[in-house]
Amino acid sequence: MMNKKYFAAAAVAITTVAFAAGCGSSPSSQENTDKTFTVGLEPTFPPFEFADNDNFKGFDIDFAQAICDKMGVKLEIKNMGFDALIPALKSGQIDMIASGMDATPERSKQVAFTKPYFHDGYVVVVRKDNTAIQGFESLAGKTVGSQVGTQGVDLGQAAGAKVKQYDANSQGWMELNNKTCDAVIINKSVALYYLQQGGNKDLKIAGKAKLAPDPVALALQKGNDAQLAKVNKAIDDLKADGTYAKLYKKWFGTEPPKE
Fold this sequence. Notes:
Blueprint: H1 2-7, E1 15-19, H2 27-31, E2 36-41, E3 44-45, E4 49-52, E5 55-57, H3 59-71, E6 74-79, H4 82-90, E7 96-97, H5 105-108, E8 111-113, E9 121-127, E10 143-147, H6 151-158, E11 162-166, H7 169-177, E12 183-187, H8 188-196, E13 203-211, E14 219-221, H9 225-240, H10 243-252
Parallel strand pairs: 2-6, 2-7, 10-11, 10-12
Antiparallel strand pairs: 1-6, 3-4, 4-5, 8-14, 9-12, 9-13
């Protein structure tokens, strides 16, 4: 995503964890259940991917597992630095990237992106008792918190707000709850997850999101059109049978937007 993906540092170690996928119902799926499908990610960006003790969790993890279930293969996770993901894909170390990656035109020169599965952006979060701020258009003259180095800072300044910059998102939530700022500008995905985890008791999203210019998609090697078609079909099937919506609501606390 915009925040993490611009500033993620390369990891010094690579960790591999294998997950057993359920057998598909078709004969072709049953024949392929001994095959491993290796997915690379950097697990430091909840709710998409994060480490919980020795386990990896998140929307991307569940989504990748569901895709592998549809294809009748075993999911294997490789944990590596975000900057190492595309080189690992191009060299054949991994079969797919599932790490909240924005499908930018520049990256499209190196990898083949699937159909989008999320579109992130920035939102304004306020306390529930705040009725004056209705979105970005209401921020002029207000004190707004946003993480240093992110587009949220630029958006706040462009709206005429006084922007307080902090190092971690947790500081923004603390200042908002302590009433030392009027609003926080933050990634939509992070905001939805925080509210879904109990933050909605005191906070709410005000107005509409400023969407990122590029959606989030999975990445595969260029030239492997057959594999890309399989993954895209799995994505279509997961959306058709309700699995995608179930996972989306699990991690973001709301129904996915209509396409």
